[in-house]
């Protein structure tokens, strides 16, 4: 089989990333320029600043990715790029770059869905993983429970009705004074807290058994904090963090277990930035063991936004004959399964 070499670009939020992936699973380079330190000053991602930083960094990460893979653009068979969902200004930088290279070097262009990228991150480190399987995507902007029917074919079982899990982590972290980014900070402080200290709600949605809702949980945490302040009760930051995290974990694990049983799936994967949370990951692993299901997860570096996952997704789209024209545009609220 010939080697198909994909140069992948990701710029949907605050990471400028490029990677070279061969045949969808063989990672030759993975370069990520993160802007976390910059946005921490503002307590969250500032879209305008993110876009400017991408413009500064994009050529550098691509040159580095090619150098790390000991390749030039002449070796590349296709370019994969995230075109949605994400911040429109940020996405446009990556899309414009990919189109420019595609046009200048006459290399085929493949527009990739960001969530599809997260799911495909599992292929890189798990050579035995093939569809069909169930995948829970949990990130700053998304919480999806997906049945991966085949490469590039997805059935969405449930999605969040309001806040994504990662968004709830960020908001709660801010409320208890931990700052940004919320996920890693809550996880760290939660190890010193008691996850059963405070009873926070676990939302169930009557007309969507696999749908998620985290805004009620976030409100419950804020109400608890306000109540403590009004009554002059000291707030135990670690207990609040641990109890909140436990509530999110219980909901995610509960939905996953329900789907595994209903769809009789023997493979379950997690993906997205929140999937690097050790507590959530351990709970998922435990649940899969109890259900007799093989558990897959990417390394933390492949959970947060990166271009390697985009390269994996682009490969399967490319071999399926999908190509994007030079009219490819950024689609900030692209839904999974839409093209």
Main pleated-sheet profile: 5 strands, mixed
Q: Which class best fits the helix and strand makeup?
A: alpha/beta
Q: Helix amount, in percent?
A: 40-55%
Write down the overall mean pLDDT.
94
Radius of gyration: 20 Å
What is the beta-strand fraction? 15-25%
Query: How many beta-strand elements?
Result: 10
Order the strands across the largest sheet as they lie in space. Answer: 3-2-1-4-5
Amino- and carboxy-terminal Cα gap:
29 Å
List the helices and strands in order: EEEHHEHEHEEEHHHHEHEHH
Residue stretches low in confidence (pLDDT < 50, at least 5 long) are: none
Molecular shape: globular
* Helical run tally: 11
Task: Briefly summarize what is shown.
By secondary structure, the protein is an alpha/beta fold.
Characterization of the model:
- With 339 residues, this protein is of the alpha/beta class.
- 45% of the residues lie in helices and 19% in strands.
- It is built from 11 helices and 10 strands.
- The strands form 2 sheets. It has a 5-stranded mixed beta sheet with strand order 3-2-1-4-5, sandwiched between helices. Strands 8-7-6-9-10 form a 5-stranded mixed beta sheet, sandwiched between helices.
- The longest helix is centred in the C-terminal third of the chain and has 27 residues.
- The radius of gyration is 20 Å and the shape is globular.
- The relative contact order is 0.19.
- The model has no long low-confidence stretch (mean pLDDT 94).
